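Hey all, quick one. A colleague (J.T.) asked me to put the alpha-D-galactopyranose job into the tracker so the inputs and the structure tokens live in one place instead of scattered across chat threads. No bug as far as I know, just bookkeeping. Sequence used:
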Amino acid sequence: MTLQQPALLTIIVGCAMLIASCSTSPQGGPRRSKQAFGSVDGNDVSIYTLRNKNGMEARITNYGGIVVSLMVPDRSGKLADVVLGYDSLSPYLTQTSYFGALVGRVANRIGHARFALEGKEYVLAANDGPNHLHGGLRGFNRAVWEVDESTPPSEPTLVLSYLSKDGEEGYPGTLRVKVVYSLSDSNDLRIDYTATTDKPTVLNLTHHSYFNLAGQGVGDILNETVMINADRFTPIDSLLIPTGEIRPVQETPMDFRTPHKVGDRINEKDDQLRLGRGYDHNWVLNRSGDGLSFAARVSEPTSGRIMEVWTTEPAIQLYTGNFLDGKSIGKGGVAYKYRTGLCLETQHFPDSPNRPEFPSCILRPGETFTSSTIYRFSAQ
Ligand code: GLA
């Protein structure tokens, strides 16, 4: 059978419309677009904008895999940017807050900046007093990640990879890391991590956005209500290193099994709150099986925005911006004051490389590390 010309034209136009509708958001643009954001050590850096059908939008740079902005609807559909950060690249190059970044090779702290693995001791940068913090002086948050540009722009997905060399920041083994950010039409910002190594190494990857569900720059987070699905947490010493104890949250200000405002108990005379200068602790998640499991929920009363966190990780760090002091000037000229953002960092326990009794963060050749976290947004 041969097709008549008008019929052929109809089919071609139909297919073109189908492709266009798949690759565009309701606002008409593609689901992923790219813009220049500057350069680092001669490498061009871009911002990738992911959009979904509800107008939600995540802008992510391949410098540090940083989420630069995240536009989320409130209960009336009004969008606001719910993460702290900067308008341009240069402050990200020197920031010490880890705004929006991917953190590794080992997120959180390693006591005395050293650990032993298979009988050999490894010495790391002491970049937090005597301890090692968030992967060292040039952690994954300061790397220019490679972008897989072959993923179709019809997909609101950003595929990043990074090759961390053997010995980088003192860690053994060449590590190949891949991180996929994706934005779904049900308002999930999902992060999937995979990694392989050529020598035994240690690994703890997380994401470090500071959320303020009222909108970045709109006051502090003390009125936001938090729930954490954890019966236990890991108490810390004066340098924020776990003591090794795993303590029930019951009858402590760490008990977020039912929702509490961040500010309700944060200034109580409690030893752990004093040591953490507020909440800066690791909760041991209640979980069953290996899949994504509910970890935490934050809700903000004025906007009605809600964020749920789901993860495959064994733990979560709630950090309430206790080191923010107003000196950092962020997006739109806003000074980020004390406790104006909160982080929910899905992770393995801090200092795991020195704690064989904690869930292992060792990765060996032939194994593939996988981890997934979803930040799920809604409003009511
Ligand atoms: C983390 C730590 C905090 C602090 C911030 C960065 O999440 O737990 O103690 O170091 O990063 O300022």
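Adding what we noticed when we looked at it: The mean pLDDT is 93. The pocket of alpha-D-galactopyranose is lined by residues 97-98, 133, 240, 280, 317, 319, 323, 343, 345 (CB under 6 Å).
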